[in-house]
Amino acid sequence: MFAYKLLSVALAFLWSAQIVFCSYEKCTCTKPAIRREWRAFTTEEKAEWIRAINCLSQQPHDPALTPSVDPSVSLIPPINTSSSYFDDIVYVHMDLNTRIHFTGQFFPWHRWFVHVFEESLKNKCGYTGVSPYWNWTIDAPDFYESSFWKDSDPVSGLGGWGDPNADFAVPDGGFHKLPLSYPSPHTVRRNFTLLSFDQPSLAALFPDPLKLGNTSFTASVVKAVLETSAGDYQGLQVAIEVPEGPHSGVHTTVGADLFGSCPKSAPANCTPGFTWSPNDPLFFMHHAMIDKIWYDWQSYDPVNVNSFFGGSVQHIESWDAYNQYPSGGPPYLSLDSMMPADGLFPEVTIGDVMNTTGGFLCYVYE
């Protein structure tokens, strides 16, 4: 009980910027923030979010960060102690990559991750806004030419596609100078790849290499996801996280950092994957959209609210293994299972994040 009280106090301090009141026993959300699509942000709101992220990249490394996955499994470089706090957040995702994808941790962990990123922006850089989400279904029909990529403003723009003559580094927008440490020093890169599932090293998971990436995240795909059978949490996860589905499709089609491909400066033993995909701040907008789909599904039918099923062990060694355990194999998780945080943030349970207005989380989607 004493340890639980200490955790509650830590949570109350960490999330003090939210309109949330925490006692030792519970938190109460009284005025939820409203998360909006990026294009609904004013120019000033966009500039503030971009400013705060650049600020986070100037904050020092936190020595509390402690990897918990064996490097022979995570296949990532050791912590760079001269890196930034933004890099620390990226590193948590890198280290836990095999525990938070294709397991029951996928939806709850990434919901928590977007939240603690937002709180870091507030607590370390004075951000006063909310997390934007990116409704990529708007852009899917003509992804490369979408106006989403046309805002090159150095203060309020997200920037566009990378320069193929400069290792696909993004040359414009508010993140074109964002310093990144992993897997090696570089700046944000984007490499449009329409045949985004044509990945020979991942052929076991991408059985249709000719499938166009942008067809995986259309409005009709999302509509079908929301109509997943009531209470079928695993079915929902399969619809979103299936290797050639909307989660992967956005990552692989944007390519480069959002996909986790190795920059030219990386060492020869660099292993690509979704590991350092938070390098591109689009990651947090993408996963806010994934979270919104889960939120919308939870709101679709009362039985969906606390529906959960998943294991703790990833099985993507083959297509058959994935089909047997699409949300992870045993040991199975429950709402009482803790979510790993590598020492950078207080750990919470899966149950703690099932309701976006039921505890220390305090937001809804418009």
From TrEMBL:
<dbReference type="InterPro" id="IPR008922">
    <property type="entry name" value="Di-copper_centre_dom_sf"/>
</dbReference>
<dbReference type="InterPro" id="IPR002227">
    <property type="entry name" value="Tyrosinase_Cu-bd"/>
</dbReference>
<protein>
    <submittedName>
        <fullName>Di-copper centre-containing protein</fullName>
    </submittedName>
</protein>
<dbReference type="GO" id="GO:0016491">
    <property type="term" value="F:oxidoreductase activity"/>
</dbReference>
<feature type="signal peptide">
    <location>
        <begin position="1"/>
        <end position="22"/>
    </location>
</feature>
<dbReference type="Pfam" id="PF00264">
    <property type="entry name" value="Tyrosinase"/>
</dbReference>
<dbReference type="InterPro" id="IPR050316">
    <property type="entry name" value="Tyrosinase/Hemocyanin"/>
</dbReference>
<feature type="domain" description="Tyrosinase copper-binding">
    <location>
        <begin position="280"/>
        <end position="291"/>
    </location>
</feature>
<keyword id="KW-0732">Signal</keyword>
<keyword id="KW-0479">Metal-binding</keyword>
<dbReference type="GO" id="GO:0046872">
    <property type="term" value="F:metal ion binding"/>
</dbReference>
<feature type="domain" description="Tyrosinase copper-binding">
    <location>
        <begin position="101"/>
        <end position="118"/>
    </location>
</feature>
<keyword id="KW-0186">Copper</keyword>
